[in-house]
Design goal:
Two copies of one chain form a homodimer. Chain A is mainly alpha-helical and 185 residues long. Chain A has a domain at 59-184: Tetracycline Repressor, domain 2 (Orthogonal Bundle). In chain A, 74% of the residues lie in helices and 0% in strands. Chain A contains nine helices and no strands. Chain A has helices spanning 16-31, 38-45, 50-55, 59-84, 88-103, 107-120, 124-141, 147-166, 173-184. At the A-B interface, helix 6, helix 7, helix 8 and helix 9 of A face helix 6, helix 7, helix 8 and helix 9 of B. Chain A binds a DNA duplex (30 and 30 nucleotides) through residues 8, 10-14, 16, 37-39, 47-55, 58-59.
Chain lengths: 185, 185
DNA sequence: CGGCGATATGTACGCTTGTACGTATGACGC
DNA sequence: GCGTCATACGTACAAGCGTACATATCGCCG
């Protein structure tokens, strides 16, 4: 009785490329860019190694697409929250929700963002991604605030998120609200 | 006539361990943690590969010491600038100088900091480093501001630095001053 | 329904990595 | 002076990497 070798039955998997990009994001969040390899992504998506080289020209290409997807997702939430606000007061509250719920809600997005920053420091293509993302955030804020305020507020958001993430005791929503209102007062 | 093989004459190099840690920081800044290897550090410090395994138990140990050194250096400057200020007005100006000159002055320190953040996300030992650093910064700010203000201001500084670093057009000292004073007003 | 081109798969190769370890050497205490 | 031991050095090795490529498979169009 030979061992029942589990031959891989998988075939005809449309959208596999997208699933691979998604799997790559998961691996980056869990192991970091440093621990993100063709083999690790393939394992996460349950596809053979060869599938990676078929769908992507290089590992850098996978990373670029994954980070682009991440930035786009975060920017979209940012825009939705802010476009739902009807006045500066609601906009301020939207920012608080954004930080405490969306950005600090799960460690995953946070880790991905910092990983992107590091990667962007050395890859011009990724720097374009971060810059486009920053521009979208600022534009969303400018629906409610003047350009200078928008830029400064965007920086404050960044700082609040990062600081809370690194801290042993993250700032509570009330503390975040206090900081935002103090700045906008 | 045999080729004059350049035998390595180096011997008896007290303080080599420290030089290696310093060299590691240079490599991290230039190639990132991902590109930081025993061989790369050894090359940067002009020592043989074997010297690495003699002085350090593992590569992680080198990274930990290097990042600790970096955090300490930045925190020290932070403390010096703020302890030199005599009143909140001077303290505010010290913060502006800190951000525009010390933190944004050279890309090196900035890259090292973000690399540290990423590494700390996965290494508890490094998280202790970032937390100790943050505590020192806050304590320095508390010489001039109440605890809440200190914490919020610290976050704002973080955001201003990161945002300027990622942006195509970094904020000018005047713009930074505007943001700081607006928050403290 | 037949074949062909896009997609999927397994494997091999050359390279770099972290680390271990045997040997060499010279500074320093006696 | 001399022996000893911390320090320094060169090299070897197994593991894991990105990537290339020959082969297999099957949806789709004629």
């Amino acid at each position: 009785m030979s061992a029942p070798v589990p031959r891989r039955p998988r075939r005809h998997d449309p959208g596999r490329r997208e699933r691979l990009v998604e799997a790559a994001l998961g691996v980056i969040a869990e192991r970091g860019v440093a621990g993100t390899t063709h083999r690790e992504i393939a394992r996460a998506a349950d596809v053979p190694l060869g599938s990676m080289t078929y769908h992507f020209a290089s590992l850098d290409e996978v990373l670029a697409e994954a980070f682009t997807r991440h930035a786009d997702a975060v920017a979209r939430v940012f825009e939705e929250r802010l476009s739902a606000a009807r006045d500066p007061e609601e906009a301020a509250e939207a920012v608080v929700t954004l930080v405490s719920d969306d950005l600090l809600g799960s460690p995953r997005g946070l880790v991905l963002t910092v990983e992107l920053y590091v990667a962007a420091a050395r890859d011009p293509a990724l720097r374009a991604v971060t810059q486009g993302w920053m521009a979208r955030s600022r534009r969303a804020l400018e629906r409610h605030f003047d350009a200078t305020t928008a830029r400064e507020l965007d920086a404050l958001i960044e700082g609040l998120v990062l600081h809370s993430a690194l801290s042993t005791d993250p700032m509570s929503p009330a503390q975040l609200r206090h900081a935002v209102h103090r700045f906008l007062r």
